[in-house]
Structure formats: C-alpha cells, structure tokens
Q: What sequence folds into this?
C-alpha cells in the first residue's frame, strides 16, 4: 500500500473571519482557493508564528478552514484573521482502503474518473471516520456519489 508523501510546501497569504456554527469553529476565507489547494490538510500560521492545523474545504463559492483541534486553536467567533496558509503538495494519492475497494468492486464502480482533489478528499473522508459504523456510512455515501456520476 502506498502512502501520501509531501513535496515542497506552498505558502498562500490569506484573510478571513471566524464563524461558529453547529459543526464548530470555521475560518471562512475572503478568497476562494481552487484546484490542488483544496481538500488538503494544511497549517494556518497566524501572528507570533501560532500554527493551527486545518482541513481546507471548498464549498460552493467559499473556502473554509476547519481547525483539526478546535478547542486548542484559540480562535473566537467573529474574529478577523490574516496569516499564511502553508499547503503541502501531495505527490501520491492515499491508498484505497480494502473495505472501500471491496465495495467498489461489488458495485462495479471506480474512483479513477474523479479529479485528484476530490479523490483525495473522499479517501480522507473514509480514513477519518471515528467508528466502524460511520466508516461504512461514508463508504455508502461515496458509492451513491459514484452511481450518480457513472454513465448507465
């Protein structure tokens, strides 16, 4: 099984505001990130070199940074932030887990047609499941997405 390796870091100057919602604290960026810059884990570097690990998501016309440790990040709702988003460059995709591979084979579906960023996001979605039942539910979501996209 291969693993994701990181290439040279890429830094992006970012600004935004902290939003508190039902899913917890999120940083909504003023600018939209595209392509290889989304669906990655990154580090948001703020004043005094404070580093906050985040997941980068692109939703509709917004880019959202989700702190991986929201309690310890020190952000407050309504706070304006300006800093540097340090993005790594994955050089290989995450491996497809055996349980997802089995489900894809059973349904005669494939992840191959998906853009690299979306594939990476979906594999992380499965990898980050907190319980076996959540993992299976996430695999079912992926199968549903692929069924919609696959031509008949």
A:
């Amino acid at each position: 099984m291969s693993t994701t390796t990181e290439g040279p870091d890429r830094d992006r100057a970012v600004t935004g505001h902290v939003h508190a919602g039902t899913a917890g604290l999120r940083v909504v960026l003023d600018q939209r990130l595209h392509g290889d810059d989304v669906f990655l884990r990154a580090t948001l570097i703020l004043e005094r070199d404070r580093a906050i690990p985040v997941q980068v998501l692109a939703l509709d016309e917004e880019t959202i940074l989700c702190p991986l440790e929201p309690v310890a990040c020190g952000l407050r709702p309504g706070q304006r932030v300006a800093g540097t988003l340090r993005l790594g460059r994955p050089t290989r995709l995450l491996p497809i887990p055996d349980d997802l591979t089995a489900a894809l084979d059973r349904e005669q579906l494939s992840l191959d047609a998906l853009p690299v960023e979306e594939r990476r996001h979906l594999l992380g979605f499965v990898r980050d499941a907190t319980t076996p039942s959540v993992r299976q539910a996430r695999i079912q979501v992926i199968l549903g997405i692929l069924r919609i996209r696959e031509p008949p």
In short: Helices lie at 98-107, 116-127, 132-149. Confidence is low (pLDDT under 50) at residues 1-7. The CA atoms of residues 78 and 98 lie 42 Å apart.
